[in-house]
């Protein structure tokens, strides 16, 4: 586990630094008083990522001095829970592909159904209500209230 913590910490520090570098090229101000600019939140999130990675790295270094014994693996890759995680990862990739082809609403309807089935839900009424509720809520909040255009697909 320590080895993975070291690797993950270093990789995420590099990702955070790259994000700050890329966000620094954004326009900084829009001219409105009190507007932090487009780069503010990406830089803050990347700084938070770097901070959490440094904390993980420091914690791992301190704990590795205490325990020098061999570690047992924490994850059983043959368990049903891990298989569910892998399945949902594949569903997320399919969601991105379907969204690029058919737009947000059809892709999200299929995504919510697929995730619920992967998580073991089998009640059709609950799947239908949850799917329509989640998709409708996102549509109302982003499109109606905030005026954001949802992703459009190639076909419609």
Give a written overview of the molecule.
- This protein has 156 residues and is mainly alpha-helical.
- It has two domains: 1-74; 78-155, no CATH class.
- It has five helices and no strands.
- It has helices at residues 2-23, 40-66, 80-102, 104-118, 124-145.
- The longest helix is centred in the middle third of the chain and has 27 residues, at 40-66.
- It is flat.
- The chain crosses the membrane at residues 7-26, 38-57, 86-119, 125-150.
- This is DUF1468 domain-containing protein.
Number of helices: 5
Average pLDDT number: 89
| Main structural class | mainly alpha
Instruction: Measure the end-to-end span.
Output: 46 Å
Task: Please state the CA-atom Rg, rounded to the nearest Å.
Answer: 21 Å
Tell the overall outline. flat
Number of structurally distinct domains? 2
Uncertain segments are none
How much strand? Answer: under 5%
SSE order, one letter for each helix or strand = HHHHH
Helix content: 55-70%
**Largest beta sheet, briefly?**
none
Number of strands: 0
List the helices and strands and how they pair.
Elements: H1 2-23, H2 40-66, H3 80-102, H4 104-118, H5 124-145
Helix pairs in contact: 1-2, 3-4, 4-5
Core attributes:
156 residues; mainly alpha; 2 domains; 5 helices
Short note summarizing the structure:
The chain has 156 residues and is an all-alpha fold. Helices cover 70% and strands 0% of the residues.
């Amino acid at each position: 586990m320590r080895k993975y913590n070291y690797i993950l910490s270093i990789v995420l520090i590099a990702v955070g630094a790259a994000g700050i570098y890329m966000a620094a090229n954004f326009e900084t101000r829009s001219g409105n008083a009190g507007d932090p600019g487009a780069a503010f939140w990406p830089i803050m999130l990347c700084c938070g990522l770097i901070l959490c990675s440094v904390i993980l790295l420091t914690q791992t270094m301190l704990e590795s001095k205490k325990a020098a014994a061999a570690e047992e693996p924490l994850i059983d890759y043959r368990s049903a829970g891990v298989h569910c995680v892998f399945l949902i990862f594949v569903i997320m990739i399919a969601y991105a592909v379907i969204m690029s082809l058919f737009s947000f609403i059809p892709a999200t309807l299929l995504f919510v159904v697929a995730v619920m089935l992967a998580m073991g839900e089998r009640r059709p009424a609950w799947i239908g209500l949850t799917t329509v509720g989640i998709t409708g809520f996102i549509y109302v909040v982003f499109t109606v209230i905030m005026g954001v255009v949802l992703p459009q697909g190639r076909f419609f």
